């Protein structure tokens, strides 16, 4: 019995040491594994999920948050710049909503400090959902099931835009994508990556890509100038941080995008000008690092980038409460 106890204890200690060693190895890397969301208000998440998918928060009644940040397509829309109300062409590429809770700020220019601040912007933007916050609240208050659910979640008789944006933000906090093959490799499963993928990661580090693309989100935690070594040529009008700070020094400074799930979030850059990862890696190498990757080097980096695709959010599609007779009807053609 004593021998069995000693053996069991030794196995437990060895297992614990292995976990500690794997965690320590992950800590030594510039990229860290994605952790599941913590401290989530489930009632708020369920309400926010409905609001995220509800097109009645738009003037046309056909656009929702999911229109441009499609959760079936990597949290984006896979077109260079998004389509807004009355088929307006948006000025910038829609960044993925996946793992957006890990960003230092929201939007390419960082004009929203957090997810809550971001959530209200598209609703009232005339080039996007083209509504007003007041009209959006009027719609929600006319729907009895929403009135009941808001009161249940927030404990208030009146709905306001603060509650709406809080709920949407709480849902978006759940949209993380852990357990990518690269995360598995970081945590000790050395068979999770092929030789080519590991060589691609080594190139990614040695070439300097990790100076900007690091941390849990592999980006999203700094602003950088697009075109450090060579100027970036584009017809896009987006000014980057300069549009927020008013400083000319911030012109063409954009939030570094996350590379998580990057295989799914094409086309790339703030103007959506790069259609493939191969093209994006080539341009980034030349413009940001002053390095011309060979075809083989490029292929290895692309292979590594594809290992960053994690488990996609899965949930039952919300059934939206029906409009009442008094609910204002959408005006898609006005």
TrEMBL record:
<keyword id="KW-0732">Signal</keyword>
<protein>
    <submittedName>
        <fullName>Cytochrome c peroxidase</fullName>
    </submittedName>
</protein>
<dbReference type="Pfam" id="PF00034">
    <property type="entry name" value="Cytochrom_C"/>
</dbReference>
<feature type="binding site" description="covalent">
    <location>
        <position position="212"/>
    </location>
    <ligand>
        <name>heme c 2</name>
    </ligand>
</feature>
<keyword id="KW-0560">Oxidoreductase</keyword>
<keyword id="KW-0813">Transport</keyword>
<dbReference type="InterPro" id="IPR026259">
    <property type="entry name" value="MauG/Cytc_peroxidase"/>
</dbReference>
<keyword id="KW-0249">Electron transport</keyword>
<feature type="binding site" description="covalent">
    <location>
        <position position="209"/>
    </location>
    <ligand>
        <name>heme c 2</name>
    </ligand>
</feature>
<keyword id="KW-0574">Periplasm</keyword>
<feature type="binding site" description="axial binding residue">
    <location>
        <position position="69"/>
    </location>
    <ligand>
        <name>heme c 1</name>
    </ligand>
</feature>
<dbReference type="GO" id="GO:0009055">
    <property type="term" value="F:electron transfer activity"/>
</dbReference>
<dbReference type="GO" id="GO:0046872">
    <property type="term" value="F:metal ion binding"/>
</dbReference>
<feature type="binding site" description="covalent">
    <location>
        <position position="68"/>
    </location>
    <ligand>
        <name>heme c 1</name>
    </ligand>
</feature>
<dbReference type="GO" id="GO:0004130">
    <property type="term" value="F:cytochrome-c peroxidase activity"/>
</dbReference>
<keyword id="KW-0408">Iron</keyword>
<keyword id="KW-0349">Heme</keyword>
<feature type="domain" description="Cytochrome c">
    <location>
        <begin position="43"/>
        <end position="151"/>
    </location>
</feature>
<dbReference type="GO" id="GO:0042597">
    <property type="term" value="C:periplasmic space"/>
</dbReference>
<keyword id="KW-0575">Peroxidase</keyword>
<dbReference type="GO" id="GO:0020037">
    <property type="term" value="F:heme binding"/>
</dbReference>
<feature type="signal peptide">
    <location>
        <begin position="1"/>
        <end position="25"/>
    </location>
</feature>
<dbReference type="InterPro" id="IPR004852">
    <property type="entry name" value="Di-haem_cyt_c_peroxidsae"/>
</dbReference>
<keyword id="KW-0479">Metal-binding</keyword>
<dbReference type="InterPro" id="IPR036909">
    <property type="entry name" value="Cyt_c-like_dom_sf"/>
</dbReference>
<dbReference type="InterPro" id="IPR051395">
    <property type="entry name" value="Cytochrome_c_Peroxidase/MauG"/>
</dbReference>
<feature type="domain" description="Cytochrome c">
    <location>
        <begin position="195"/>
        <end position="309"/>
    </location>
</feature>
<feature type="binding site" description="axial binding residue">
    <location>
        <position position="213"/>
    </location>
    <ligand>
        <name>heme c 2</name>
    </ligand>
</feature>
<feature type="binding site" description="axial binding residue">
    <location>
        <position position="284"/>
    </location>
    <ligand>
        <name>heme c 2</name>
    </ligand>
</feature>
<dbReference type="InterPro" id="IPR009056">
    <property type="entry name" value="Cyt_c-like_dom"/>
</dbReference>
<feature type="binding site" description="covalent">
    <location>
        <position position="65"/>
    </location>
    <ligand>
        <name>heme c 1</name>
    </ligand>
</feature>
<dbReference type="Pfam" id="PF03150">
    <property type="entry name" value="CCP_MauG"/>
</dbReference>
